[in-house]
Amino acid sequence: MRRRRQEKLWIHTWSRPIIGAIAAVGATGTGYLTAVKLMNKTAACIGGCDRVLSSEWATVFGLPLTLFGCLSYLSMLVLALSPLAVNADDNKDLRTQLEGWTWPLLFIGSTGMMVFSGFLMYVLATDLKTTCLYCIASATMTVAMFVLTLVGRRWDDRGKLMFNGAIVATVALVATLGIYAVPGGPLSTGNQAAEVAGAGPSVTTASGAAEIALAEHLTESGAKMYGAYWCPHCHDQKQLFGEEASKKMPYVECAADGKASQTALCTAENITGYPTWKVNGEILSGAQSLETLALASDYTGPKDFMNSGGGTGATSDGG
Q: Could you tell me the CATH number of the domain that includes residue 152?
């Protein structure tokens, strides 16, 4: 007796368009965040999105993590929709071949993206301790794409598929940990040893006599630098002063979980971005060059700064 032909489910027809739509939304979102990161702008988001974007976790190999996310979503978009671009009536064999080649790649891609997003959710909850709607949405979309690759077609051997998925997930997790464990990364041994809870990374540059004199002058004149330990631009500012001078500069910690936090003072001063300088009644937003701070504070001491220049005016949102 001939076996009855299995009926094609609606999900088998629409799985690729749905995956493509999800990937398009993901690529748009990560593309926007990449532009925000590169232009040092503030993302339109309720919560700690900018804190996440400015953290050390948001950069991989010197490039925004969101850039790699955008490329991943674009790859999933191409893999999902490329077979649909071939007319089944005119070239059925080519379309069948493309579907056969791209389904395993969709499974591998969605599995890797889901594992990576899961790791970032763990970091968000345990290290950054904030919310990011973009991050949560992206993680949800990677899970959705993974599920759609499982149910979107009839796999010949689901046991083998799950075994291969476990291998892909393991490789993805090891690669993720390796990426962040490179020297200077958030998981590197040296970086972990150098950080104190709520204090951020250590200042590694040296201070000259001019840097120390300027830091002391700013403190004596009543100037204030409002910042947060997790803010990379605040760290850049401290790097300009150097290790010794940074201990003498008039720094005010605004992060609630920061060391020696003065959140109430920051709130009273209406500080919304970091770093923010208040010098002689003038507000200076972003990291400033030592020459700018010397001029604004009427500093008359030595100006042969070892770490001259470097001010970018970039700030991190208070989140």
A: 1.20.1440.130
Q: Quick one: tokens of 2?
A: 């001939």
Question: From CA 81, how far away is CA 283, in angstroms rounded?
Answer: 52
DSSP letter at 225 equals: E
**Phi/psi at 284 (5° precision):** -120, 115
Residue of 119, 113, 101 lying closest to 142 (CA atoms): 113
pLDDT tens column, 41-92:
767 776 677 778 777 788 888 888 999 999 999 999 999 999 998 887 778 8
Handedness of CA 267, 273, 279, 281 (dihedral sign): negative
Of the three residues 180, 197, 221, the one that is the final residue of a domain is: 180
**Amino acid 82: pLDDT:** 94
Q: What is the DSSP string of 70-85?
A: HHHHHHHHHHHHTGGG
What is the residue type of 189?
T
Could you tell me if 222 and 189 are in contact, meaning their C-beta atoms sit under 8 angstroms apart?
no
* Domain final residue pick, 135, 164, 180: 180
Could you give the CA distance from residue 185 to residue 178 in angstroms, rounded to a whole number? 10
Structure tokens at 210: 């001019």
H-type helices in the chain, by residue range?
10-38, 49-53, 65-81, 92-123, 133-151, 158-180, 189-194, 209-220, 232-241, 243-246, 263-268, 290-296
φ, ψ for residue 57, nearest 5 deg? -75, -15
State the average pLDDT for the chain. Answer: 87
Read off the CATH number of the domain in which 275 is found: 3.40.30.10
31 and 174, same domain (yes or no):
yes
Residue 12's CB: how many other CB atoms inside 10 A? 14
Name the residue type at position 101. Answer: W
Q: What does the pLDDT look like over 108-139, one tens digit per residue?
A: 999 999 999 999 999 998 887 788 899 999 99
Structural domain range at position 218: 209-317
Question: Which two three-digit tokens encode residue 45?
Answer: 């988001």
Q: Could you tell me if 42 and 314 are in contact, meaning their C-beta atoms sit under 8 angstroms apart?
A: no
Distance, in Å, from the CA atom of 273 to the CA atom of 232, rounded to the nearest integer, reads 12
Hey, what are 114's tokens?
Answer: 């889901």
